[in-house]
Amino acid sequence: MKKMLLALSLSGALLGGSAAWAENAASAPATEETTTVVATTTEAPVTGSAEAPSAATATPAPAATPKMDSGDTAWILISTALVLLMTIPGLALFYGGMVRKKNVLSTMAHSFVAAAIVSIVWVVIGYTLAFSTTGNAFVGGLDKIMLSGITTEALSGTIPEILFVIFQMTFAIITVAIISGSVAERMKFGAFVAFITIWVIVVYAPITHWVWGGGWLGSDGALDFAGGTVVHINSGVAGLVAAYMLGKRIGLGKESMAPHNLALTVIGASLLWVGWFGFNGGSALAANGAAGYALVTTQVAAAAAAISWGIVEKIVRGKTSLLGLLSGAVAGLVVITPAAGFVTVSGALIMGLIGGVVCFWGISGLKRMLKADDSLDAFGLHAVGGMAGAILTAVFASPFIMGDKAPASVTHQLWIQIEGVLATIAYSAVLTFIILKVIDVVIGIRANSDDERMGLDLSQHGERVE
């Protein structure tokens, strides 16, 4: 990213320096022997030859012009579709199956409207705030509003920049949709729409810039391969704050809040697992070995976490539930996200095993301690899993995978990772609170008690599942 005339001249000098020979050589067809000489002398030119230019006078070769790679482009096209599949229909089904029947449509509507609204906000202003290089360490500039200046020829690495725009858009979409799991069954639809519109601009885009867009966390050396901080900690913390501000669902602890249709949740979780290959593998931004390794580590971590969650649940509750296995797999996917392209398979296995146990505690013991009605455990799975993954990335980042880009010191990298975790928590929590407070004053954020008892499907959308 960041030599043939000389060889031909040197070859002529070694054969006697004859100008006539050089002219003949230039016009003669290349033979296997002369080709070998050229290749050899290009790698190690002999100095001191009368005709060889000195290091002081040699003209440096021009830097290679970046070119689009069709293989990389094809892979990111596929990955973009896979990541969008994670939200619609993946997360919509995953969340929709876990709520009560009277709220299934409203819950799915959150994921669907997130895809619609974030798509528009992202191209209008989100992308430029996240990835423009004309800004500062905290937020991008405004030179790419409405994708201004991005032509069909513009590149981001070896892929078209316009493709990079929509690939990153799908990350913003699922981040917003994850938050809906914490507010399910009681938040006004209009308030949710207003919230996510503002949140993408003032919370998601700046944190993305910090880590991936040339901002201060990336400059400090924070490692986040595919979104442990940007997506999972960010959304999980926002969800927890929203859950506190909304308050608990009516009847919580007194009425059954059991999932109405776990079959939908199974389908949704399966789509999430498959789609995560685009999420993590696509984050290599190339069709190469790093992408392949990311796929393997993703698969191993998800499987390991499903197993460890199931074992812990059997010990604690006496049975291993299907919902537990699904949640464990998602926990493993979250935990490996910041590390997918940085760790070995053995590292991914250990991270998955740890992730299943930690996230089980996040949705049980920690949830009871926090006393928040995080309806579908967005905080316990995504924020807790994201924190664990970000910190474990420092421990398991491997020179075998990263080469000379691997952290020189585990201790130093650990502090950098913790810095990123704490900064994301603080910024997301404070700004989420402010946004929701303003919306609550203007239009209110919670459905009234009669609407909540009726169910948000009817009260907010005038529809119901038969």
Automatic annotation (TrEMBL):
Predominant subcellular localization, coarse grouping: membrane
Xref: SUPFAM superfamilies: Ammonium transporter
Membrane topology note: Multi-pass membrane protein
Pfam families listed in its UniProt record: Ammonium_transp
Membrane-spanning parts: 74-96, 108-130, 162-184, 191-213, 225-246, 258-279, 291-311, 323-342, 348-366, 378-402, 414-436
Annotated InterPro entries: Ammonium/urea_transptr (IPR029020), Ammonium_transpt (IPR001905), Ammonium_transpt_CS (IPR018047), NH4_transpt_AmtB-like_dom (IPR024041), RhesusRHD (IPR002229)
Regions of compositional bias (Low complexity) in chain numbering: 46-66
Positions of region (Disordered): 46-68
Gene3D superfamilies: Ammonium transporter AmtB like domains
Top-level division of the source organism's lineage: Bacteria
Entry keyword Cell membrane: no
Alphabetized UniProt keyword annotations: Ammonia transport, Membrane, Signal, Transmembrane, Transmembrane helix, Transport
PROSITE patterns per record: AMMONIUM_TRANSP
Signal sequence segment: 1-22
Protein location: Cell membrane; Membrane
Keyword Acyltransferase annotated: no
Domain (Ammonium transporter AmtB-like) ranges: 74-464
Similarity remark: Belongs to the ammonia transporter channel (TC 1.A.11.2) family.
PANTHER family noted in UniProt: AMMONIUM TRANSPORTER MEP2 (PTHR43029:SF10)
Descriptive protein name: Ammonium transporter
Source organism: Acinetobacter baylyi
